[in-house]
Amino acid sequence: MKPDLSVTLGSLRLRNPVMSASGTFGYGLEFAPFYDISRLGAIVVKGLSLAPTHGNPPGRIVETASGMLNAIGLQNIGVERFIEDVAPRLADAGATFAANIYGRTVEEYEEVARRLSGLPSLAAIEVNASCPNVKEGGIAFGSSPEGVSRLTGRVRNATDKPVWVKLSPNVSDIGSVAQAAEGAGADAVSLVNTLVGMAVDHRTRRPKLSNVTGGLSGPAIKPVALRMVWEACKRVKIPVIGIGGIQTAADALEFLLVGASAVQVGTANFRNPGVCVEILEGIEAFLREERLSGIGEYRGKLAL
Amino acid sequence: MKPDLSVTLGSLRLRNPVMSASGTFGYGLEFAPFYDISRLGAIVVKGLSLAPTHGNPPGRIVETASGMLNAIGLQNIGVERFIEDVAPRLADAGATFAANIYGRTVEEYEEVARRLSGLPSLAAIEVNASCPNVKEGGIAFGSSPEGVSRLTGRVRNATDKPVWVKLSPNVSDIGSVAQAAEGAGADAVSLVNTLVGMAVDHRTRRPKLSNVTGGLSGPAIKPVALRMVWEACKRVKIPVIGIGGIQTAADALEFLLVGASAVQVGTANFRNPGVCVEILEGIEAFLREERLSGIGEYRGKLAL
Amino acid sequence: MPSSRMRTAEGRIVCNEGHGGIFYRLEAALPDPVGFVPGQFAMVSGWPGNDPLLPRPLAIFRSAAGPKGKGTVEFVYKVVGRGTALLSGLHPGAPLSLTLPLGRGFDLGKEGRLYWLVGGGVGFSSVFPAAAALARKRADFEMFLGSRTRDQLPPKEWTPGGTAPGRLHLCTEDGTAGFFGRVTDAVTERMGLLSASEASRLTILSCGPWEMLKELALGAANRGVEMQAALESHMACGFGVCWGCVVALREDEKTAYRRVCKEGPVFDAREVVW
Amino acid sequence: MPSSRMRTAEGRIVCNEGHGGIFYRLEAALPDPVGFVPGQFAMVSGWPGNDPLLPRPLAIFRSAAGPKGKGTVEFVYKVVGRGTALLSGLHPGAPLSLTLPLGRGFDLGKEGRLYWLVGGGVGFSSVFPAAAALARKRADFEMFLGSRTRDQLPPKEWTPGGTAPGRLHLCTEDGTAGFFGRVTDAVTERMGLLSASEASRLTILSCGPWEMLKELALGAANRGVEMQAALESHMACGFGVCWGCVVALREDEKTAYRRVCKEGPVFDAREVVW
Ligand SMILES: Cc1cc2nc3c(=O)[nH]c(=O)nc-3n(C[C@H](O)[C@H](O)[C@H](O)COP(=O)(O)OP(=O)(O)OC[C@H]3O[C@@H](n4cnc5c(N)ncnc54)[C@H](O)[C@@H]3O)c2cc1C
Ligand SMILES: Cc1cc2nc3c(=O)[nH]c(=O)nc-3n(C[C@H](O)[C@H](O)[C@H](O)COP(=O)(O)OP(=O)(O)OC[C@H]3O[C@@H](n4cnc5c(N)ncnc54)[C@H](O)[C@@H]3O)c2cc1C
Ligand SMILES: Cc1cc2nc3c(=O)[nH]c(=O)nc-3n(C[C@H](O)[C@H](O)[C@H](O)COP(=O)(O)O)c2cc1C
Ligand SMILES: Cc1cc2nc3c(=O)[nH]c(=O)nc-3n(C[C@H](O)[C@H](O)[C@H](O)COP(=O)(O)O)c2cc1C
Ligand code: FES
Ligand code: FES
Predict the structure, then answer these.
(1) A53, A63, A216: which to substitute to probe chain C, counting the most C Cβ within 10 Å?
(2) Domains detected in chain B
(3) What is the pTM of this model?
(4) How many A from CA of A220 to the centre of ligand 1?
(5) Which residues of chain D make contact with C85, given a CB cutoff of 8 A?
(6) pLDDT digits over B18-41, tens only?
(7) Residues C229-239: pLDDT tens digits?
């Protein structure tokens, strides 16, 4: 019997728990040459802002031990062009997709969310609450429960779409931040975004990123991400989407095991453009092997 | 001309900036078969508690991508045996050494510090303020500026030795925590300790560590550690000791470049017992190549 | 029929040998033949483990159809760091992961033009395939290859067939072979001798270090000569989804960051903000 | 003279070949000869990059003095995961990083005893060196080797010289060679036949999976037979400084965590908390 791969995130039902992570999957269509993108649980597109954004000067990526730093600076085509040019093509391809959004102010977040609400084919809005370039004296929204609560509440009121709040791992207590999102009406939390890191060249004495610091992703961060997802799952009742260093079906299963309802695959797409489908097939094969009827029989079943 | 490798940490002058990190170097004497341990800037011994400590059951280490998780649980011989058996032998070997200390309560920290104060050969006391098994409802001392401030102040008053406070990276704002240590009288801050992580076996459905979570160390965390050291250096005037994923002279130089006064080498000792001396020699060779008269001409010279 | 559609492929190493001391030639067998435009590249990896994490971009040097519908692809590379060092340690029979062909190659489409192909260092790896394609089209071209010293010029046997000896200009900075000086000097000198109408018929196709390309681009702009430059950049994905590899281009008086892996690696030299 | 002092050594691979399908024999040339006690081990790495990060413990299988004061060391391993897979991919000539000899080996010191050497799976890698040492001392020993099936027994040519054929007992769980059943069953059966005085003269030296050692240890304790067990454990350092590799021992009525790499890997089976 074919195991049931479908998962529910609140009101939303997904074919399967494997999604792409924002910023690592372009606008989704770029992967059409590699496989049928409608096979994924969902595609989360590159973070969208109100106006098109230039991004940071080069020196945007640095490889680190089993990871990479990026400081792309959210270069993107802006929400309008996404709505006009990209969304219809994703819908035509049969893909389930969510929009990751980002603003310099709470008002911008609201406005982007509002504009996206009119897109019938859009499955959800993922709020990037982990960006350091916002008001409030330069302190990231995402690093305090209060900031996350406020941002979540405002976006929640601006749209009828399911709202996923994407959390930063650069905090002392991820559980409280996740609870803040839940309390303010989030339908799900996604975690983790990147860890803030830095790289310098000891000879030239210069930072390797034009932005000096950047976000660390990839297998290096998986142990930290898994711990945070586990902690968040213990603290909230809304679904948790697990992200961070997932490269194989085994990695994805680990996040499901500690309680995640779904996963997102990021950096691994760069190494292997076909990886999301390989993970999907690997999960299915595992459920078969273990004679499990579906994800539900496995999720959160960590034996302590 | 031979470059001057010596560095000062407040009132303390060290031969060179290369130290071993606590918990990765035993009690120091274990390295005597590999090289003359008096060559190191300082040896920081395994965390000492008031009474000998058993530590956690096995399942204590897990390898991760370019890193490892440990949950040793601070197994150690206790401060008394250290003072009686170990310290004299370290002194005989001509080694400069510091004691890393740990307590379940503030009072225990104080008491360990007090007992160590009588050791003339002891160079400094490093306070492990990053341990999750303490009073205060299970919240780590190290995760809030208030906790760090209180602990630092109390240990400061319990001893005349230089006090280094070792900080946890599991915080939103490392700068504030470093400032708290400085404000409470620390002579230096050491950072980072390990990032909290987790590993599970997706087949057996069990955590890989008996303690479920553990501390992530090794090259995987270097970008995060470097960023935090840089941030701490901008916020405090006391010396900062840089720790995290250092494996080569180039790595060590990166920490010095962003402002660290010295470095500690941890996990790399496991792979290569001779690594500290290789790093030391590499730093000297670099200074020669660049025709620098000493560390002072290089430290903190990051060009932004 | 070799197909030029972008794909991932699990190759197997057929040959991976050092040549002339510093260049390696890596040949891999593929499940099916790959067509490519000179200047296009592949993302290549094959070492085990997650460190280094990212594949490395290498220009496609040659490709061929093999027996039974299979194919082969060749790369030429220089060891400059960890990834290329790891590549150089792989033995025949080892697997090689590839995504290819990627990016926008040289535009060789226009009729009746004179081409100067300029390669600095390992830049000949994109310039040779362009020369081979021009030779097949019987187009009019000359080739300038520069290096620091004689031993760092590409081995003779790699020069594409159809390159008339008088049309191949070697340049070494230490004068140990050919023109004594940098390849940019040789090209600029020769450009100086062109009439305006010759200059307007000329297209430079170039690949090499940034400083070399910049100097060439300025020289070409001065003489009104068209130039296409194959740029390098640190890449994470190679197929346009990470936005990590951008270079600043001048477009309609504004600058915009464009992806070297997607809009490039070959750009019109006049648009690049050098 | 081979020295037994603990050291790091940069070796070079001389041979790294599969035998009998599942075991590899890895031989490395060393700057100087290494002396060791059977049961001692080395921390071994050699792959490039930081992933996997940690070296792997392997029992020292053989060592020898070479010409010009140099030495060689040999290991026998089975591919079970990433580290051993990487090792198996290393070619002759490649460098190998070693720290050795490590830990406390078997105690073969007592006169007049009868030894039974028991190896399960790749456990023969510590048992064979012990047999070779006992043979050199002309001590009285028998050897029991167990595996799931015939193909997983060690290749015959590795059996140490001096092992009289009648004293080598092969056991397979599927009965394809020797005793039909587990090696623990064979040993327990034989122990049952011993007189009390024979039992008191017997020492079992054993290496293999935890479950096998546990069963043996219980059987031995029942018959008052002395037993030394070489344990395995996940190790980070291998020389006693990380406290990662501990096992629970019963000491003076209390349990204490002792380091497999330092106080072990060979322990008195009666002290282990199985
Ligand atoms: C489209 C394209 C085609 C290329 N074709 C070839 C080719 O055919 N043959 C060849 O030998 N090389 C080619 N390169 C360059 C090659 O990709 C780099 O040399 C390689 O990625 C370096 O990897 P590494 O791990 O050995 O070096 P690293 O250890 O990563 O770095 C070593 C040094 O090389 C520099 N470097 C690293 N990556 C790049 C990069 N992508 N671009 C520029 N500098 C870099 C670093 O800054 C550093 O100074 C090409 C690059 C691009 C972008
Ligand atoms: C003192 C000592 C001597 C040893 N001698 C030999 C020998 O001579 N020949 C040989 O083939 N093997 C020997 N081993 C076991 C060998 O170290 C492991 O098989 C090896 O470390 C596995 O590494 P890996 O990366 O291939 O496997 P991994 O990918 O790390 O793990 C694969 C599987 O092996 C298990 N495993 C990993 N490391 C160990 C370990 N240290 N102990 C027990 N199980 C482990 C894991 O739990 C997992 O189930 C010895 C172990 C010790 C402690
Ligand atoms: C190049 C790059 C760009 C990213 N851009 C975004 C973004 O626009 N919005 C966002 O929420 N996360 C962004 N991320 C974070 C990822 O979505 C993901 O949370 C993170 O990379 C961790 O997962 P991974 O280890 O699987 O990559 C980006 C990550 C990378 C590597
Ligand atoms: C096995 C192990 C044990 C450790 N024990 C201690 C300890 O007792 N006290 C302490 O302050 N830090 C301890 N640490 C943390 C290290 O001192 C160091 O801060 C951390 O490992 C990061 O450095 P690295 O990446 O170079 O290992 C331990 C680390 C490891 C890996
Ligand atoms: S390398 Fe990812 S967009 Fe170019
Ligand atoms: S492996 Fe480190 S103490 Fe044993």
Answers:
(1) A63
(2) 7-56+74-199+216-297 (3.20.20.70)
(3) 0.96
(4) 23
(5) 48
(6) 999 999 999 999 999 999 999 999
(7) 999 999 999 99
